[in-house]
Amino acid sequence: MNVSERVALVTGGSRGIGKAIVFALAKAGAKVAFVYQSNQEAADQIVTDLTSQGHEVYAIKADVSQKSEADAAIENVVSKWGRLDILVNNAGIIRDKLVLAMSAEEWHEVINTNLSSVFNFCQAAIRPMMSNRFGRIVNMSSVAADFSNPGQANYAASKAGIEGFSRCLATEYAKRGITVNCVAPGFIETDMTVAVVNAAGDKVKNSIPVKRLGKPEDIANAVLFLASEESSYITGQVLKVDGGLTLGGMG
User: Fold this and answer.
1) Are 33 and 86 in contact (CB under 8 A)?
2) pLDDT greater than 70 at residue 127
3) pTM across the whole model
4) Gyration radius from the chain CA atoms
5) 58, 155, 173, 233: which one is catalytic?
6) 36 catalytic, yes or no?
7) Strand 135-140 relative to strand 178-185: parallel, antiparallel, unpaired?
8) Which residue pairs from 120-123 have beta carbons closer than 8 angstroms and sit at least 24 positions apart in sequence?
9) What is the mean pLDDT of residues 40-56?
10) Where are the alpha helices (DSSP H) in the chain?
11) pLDDT per residue over 156-205, tens digit each?
12) How far apart are CA 5 and CA 228, in angstroms?
């Protein structure tokens, strides 16, 4: 999959799925910047690991929910490398509670971090992509957009919103050489899912047809394809990477 010499920006890139995406893009030949919010030690380690292998990568500290910081991050990348070809909106959080127990703050925190950040970065990235008549935008959704569990109203709403937003954006800019797609992970071995998986035990694995949890690299490989030249005729789509979890529903 060809991303050689492309310039990429990944949000939420310091751990889990985001970290795997940064590594996949860098090892496939892209110059990669990634956004992190607070864990500078983890970010510095990624930069050290990849630059020692000869890859061009650097970290940007930013709050993805803030439009001004998203604008600055995009400007930073374009100033450094002269262009932006690939944007991966991966940053996300969970604040699970039943609706009656959910505070307005918990609702808005999830919506702003998961959904508004996608608008923030996409709007900032579209102009430099239009200038080059090339762009690959991959937005991280979730199977929760279609099959949600109790306590995830804010999370499910944010992910469903990402999918609707991505379809509109794909329609608006397809003629400019920009594709916009979503990847929807199922149960992946990350810090965000460990509590759910530990509580449910083998029930989770048994609900997945391939009988295993996904790895961050499984998602990274899907993102790498959608970011590549080989995906040029795919736009406005949602690729579920869930081991078949949603084939029979999640209930």
Assistant:
1) no
2) yes
3) 0.94
4) 17
5) 155
6) no
7) parallel
8) 120/64, 120/65, 120/66, 120/67, 120/70, 120/71, 121/9, 121/11, 121/64, 121/70, 121/73, 121/74, 121/87, 121/89, 122/87, 122/89, 122/165, 122/169, 122/180, 123/70
9) 97
10) 16-27, 40-51, 67-81, 104-110, 117-132, 153-173, 194-200, 202-206, 216-226
11) 999 999 999 999 999 999 999 999 999 999 999 987 666 656 555 577 77
12) 11
Helix, strand, coil abundance in the chain, percent, nearest 5: 50, 15, 35
pLDDT tops 70 at residue 251: no
Is 11 in contact with 69 (CB distance < 8 Å)?
no
Q: Burial-class residue 113 by CB neighbours within 10 Å (0-12, 13-18, 19+).
A: buried
Residue pLDDT, tens place only, 72-112: 999 999 999 999 999 999 999 999 999 999 999 999 999 99
Q: Which superfamily, per CATH, for 7-241?
A: NAD(P)-binding Rossmann-like Domain (3.40.50.720)
User: Domain boundaries in the chain?
Assistant: 7-241
